[in-house]
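Lab channel / #folding
Pinned by the channel admin:
"Please post every new chain as: sequence first, then the structure tokens as a reply. Keep commentary short and put observations after the output so the thread stays searchable."

First post following the new format, from NK:
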Amino acid sequence: MLTIGKLELEVPFVQAALSGYSDLSMRRMARQFGAPYAINEVVLDKLVTQKGKTRRETLSVAPDDHPVGGQLMGADPEQFALAAGDMVEAGYDVIDINFGCPVRKVLGRCRGGFHLSQPDVALEIIRRVYEAVGGRAPVTLKMRRGIDDSSESESNFFRILDGAFETGLAAATVHGRTVVQRYIGPSQWSFLAKVKRHVGDRIIIGSGDLFSAQACIQMIEQTGVDGVTIARGCIGNPWIFSECRALWEGKPLPPPPSVPEQGVVVAQHFDEIVKVHGPKLGVKIMRKFGIKYSEHHPSAREVRDDLVNAQSQDQVQDSIARWYDPEADWPKVERRGGHGDLIAAGAST
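Reply from TO:
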């Protein structure tokens, strides 16, 4: 069981906040396959407090979308606190503070991972947010292992982490890459083990290079973290949560989904996208999910191109029906690769 404040999650596998991806449709698919907790895509604090489309969409929490975390990013402590208060009032179960985003535009505006270079401001943000919502919802923190590999950066990391827990932080998610690494190079799981030893009984959730259920289990076993948050590894791959549950319960790894089984999920996800966003925008959103789903198909490149080029709801549905036809003689899907990717024998890559 993974405990985050008052939340008790039966398995320690979380769907991460994924900018541009982890909307309600993706969270519903993750929950269907066993994710006990999911986090909304990161949102800028000022867009939560200002009237407009982002505020309306962010503060509309569906009854079936619980427990759900709301992840905030920004630069101003007061603005952070106001947005956090609004999100708790709207029904978010957890407020997650983003000190991990490595995107250059974000860093240039003193947001996300930039805060790891300024501990005083970072701790003021945490304090303000906790004072605003700490009595009503747990506050958590997402951070990378520092700006870079310097000793000063590591010192700043632990100063922020320790100060956050002293303030009342319920849990911290730590990514094993630095901010300057972005997504290049391996995630240092050894650093996660160091962090967990440092904090003792306090809750640490690990992140980084989790592209298979086996990797999720290995991270917990090798580092001692209390849980893991799955990010890029679950885009177009909601099966990873049911696979994690199976391994966690001591069961064999389930076989990878057949092509027709994949098709049922792809079609359902598209239906959810249309429900949330409408058919016109839904077709555009489905393209990026379709790219990831297609990687599991024996004709990956052709499926990807077909879904990306679809211009209407009917065309997307026709493409899914054609490429995932349960009556067709599809090859058996097999696993390969260090990331646990699904691929069929002879598949195009």
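NK: Residues 337-349 have pLDDT under 50 and may be disordered.
TO: also worth noting, The chain has two domains: 2-248, 259-344.
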